[in-house]
Amino acid sequence: MRKMFAVIGITMLLLCSASAAFAAAPIKIGGLFAVTGPASFLGEPEKNTLELLVKEANAKGGINGSKIELFIYDTGGDATKAVQLANKLIKNDKVVAIIGPSTTGESMAVIPVAEKEQIPLVSCAAGIKITDPVKKWVFKTPANDHVAAEKILIQAEKLKQKNIALITVSDSFGSSGREQLKQMAAKRGFKIVADEVYSPKDTDMTPQLTKIKAAKPDAIICWGTNPGPAIITRNIQQLGIKTQVYQSHGVASKKYIELATAQAAEGIMLPAGKLAVFDLLKPSDPQAKLLKDYNTDYKKSYGVEASTFGGYAYDGFQLVAAAIRKGAATAAQIRDGIEKNGRMVGVSGIFKMTPTDHNGLDLGAFEMVRIVKGDWVIVK
Amino acid sequence: MELLNQVTQFVISGLATGSIYALIGLSFAIIFNSTGIINFAQGEFVMLGGVLTIFSLNVLHLPLLAAILVAVAVTTVIGLVFERLAIRPLKNATPLMLIIITIGASILIRGLVMLLWGKDTQALPAFSGTDPISVAGATLLPQHLWIFGVTVLVIIGCRLFFNHTISGKAMRACSFNRRAANLVGISVGRMVLFSFVISAAVGALAGVIIAPLTMTAYDVGVMLGLKGFCAAIMGGMGSGLGTVLGGLILGTLESLGAGLISSGYKDAIAFFILLLILFIRPQGLFKKGETERV
């Protein structure tokens, strides 16, 4: 008797899944974002952006006639949770592609799952380790940290600044930036005269900066996300340090100027994603229109300006959508589609994925800006 | 000379950070002294002080002084409600249970603030400008003077209250022996409530005066609370002055450690010292009552 039930059950299951496949099946896409927790400044705009894009796509009747079904989970910035949820997305929700996770740590933890289950993963984290070395199923949309680092060092070279001081945050973003800066500075013949770190929750960095001041650098490069760099900027003003300061792309938002105060931030240079300065771009810039539209749509739906971080999910979805538009439906087809996508204008830059480059961005992803009177000015 | 100037800066920065720790440590000690509870929601009171001031300033458009008063008052009420709802109903709870309740409360408060005011870091304008003041080759900000000043006032206030008023003495009596205090007619429950009210007010005040320097967000309470807790433990959780010294020592060592040894080990140095103190003087933490009964 029990056996019969099982047989009936299995047959019914088979029938159900078969009939689902015959109808114009929705394409299931998963999102893994750190919507809460310490990395929520990344996860929240990413989730909002993805939801917005899917809503727009479905309102237009889906992509190639198939609706998108979205499954988003909150990882809380926790790598263990991210792995569990990735498995859930793949095994329970049967998604064909995953966008996220938000942080490098989570992405590294989820990569083995994506590789084993053969599901394309488009990470929204910046760490270079994610796509270097290239992994078959893994892509990422934020530009590599070393692109931003290189941009800063090229600017320092132009200004003939030889001795540089580093002050970096001790989380994964900061240590990745610190490594890249040190490596590239050595290659380009810079001398690192001070190498200081601070914890993400530190409230006073004057000890580190006093040490940097004594080392007499030509330039100070700070690598972190708010509020640390804002506190550092204020501390630099307090200590009366007149050295040129560079910040990373991690603070390329007006929020940073507001926290640091325009007076203390005057003259600081940083590589900014183009979204931060879209209204300063020439109309001929290929990204100008897309950035403006994204910002307008985001503002209309959520009442705040779009952020670079949301742009990572935007590009992730566009990559997947482009593959689907070209007829991809299964995980393997989507993976191949992303890799063979060719040139694509996105929020973070102009992507050109190849089998040997699963990020596809170059130095053009950033624009060097200077803070003048509390606003951005593009450095020529 | 160069090194001397540097060390002066390290010490001054350390003392400034240390007095923040001291103030928060003090608010830990106040509750511990009358209840034997370590209130791990203390950092949240600090956060509420800062966040509520910014809210009153930017959204309600109150002048700075009024905004501060509103923030401290509201936080005090939250402290009062917290004691009434979460601590008082548990008549025979062990200190451990109560401590865990405070951890729960801290998560709740943090979550609510995040939902109500978002996750963005915000800064309060400095009370009296941001022009650095130069002292013996080192610099500090006017806001640091505010922090020093308020810390001194709070210490004097606590000392007068605990040593020279009936309520203060009654609260100390509760900390020595609750049953005996009850027998001589002290309402222990009321004293516990008092301690939460005072502690919330001191915590909020600390949060307000540091917000222009350290900025504030829903999650700043965790680390500040932890550092304040260290300060309180270093001071043996007891007298006001010990805690203040604990905070100043912690801040100075952190700053000197970051400046002279390695900034990467800054927190490690601080927590190493904490462990050392716990090894050498474990009675400072939970068994205070026993040592004093001798």
Automatic annotation (TrEMBL), chain A:
Q: What is this protein called?
A: ABC transporter substrate-binding protein
Q: Which family does it belong to?
A: Belongs to the leucine-binding protein family.
The signal peptide here is 1-23
Entry's Gene Ontology BP terms: amino acid transport
Could you tell me which species this protein originates from? Geomonas paludis
Reply yes or no: does the keyword Signal apply: yes
Describe the location of the Leucine-binding protein domain by residue ranges.
26-359
Q: Which residues form a coiled coil?
A: none
What Pfam families does this protein map onto?
Peripla_BP_6
Q: Record's InterPro entries?
A: BCAA_transport (IPR051010), Leu-bd (IPR028081), Leu_Ile_Val-bd (IPR000709), Peripla_BP_I (IPR028082)
Q: Which UniProt keywords apply?
A: Amino-acid transport, Signal, Transport
TrEMBL record, chain B:
Key words of the record: Amino-acid transport, Cell membrane, Membrane, Transmembrane, Transmembrane helix, Transport
Cellular-component GO terms for this entry = plasma membrane
Matches recorded under Pfam families? BPD_transp_2
Coiled-coil region list: none
The answer on whether this UniProt entry bears the keyword S-adenosyl-L-methionine reads no
In terms of superkingdom, the source organism counts as Bacteria
Where in or outside the cell it occurs: the entry states:
Cell membrane
The primary site where this protein sits is membrane
What are the transmembrane regions?
A: 12-32, 39-57, 63-82, 94-117, 144-162, 183-211, 231-256, 268-286
Q: How does it sit in the membrane?
A: Multi-pass membrane protein
Q: Which InterPro entries match?
A: ABC_transp_permease, BCAA_transport_permease
Q: Which GO terms describe its molecular function?
A: transmembrane transporter activity
Which biological process terms from the Gene Ontology are attached to this UniProt entry?
A: amino acid transport
Family (UniProt) = Belongs to the binding-protein-dependent transport system permease family. LivHM subfamily.
List the protein's name. Branched-chain amino acid ABC transporter permease
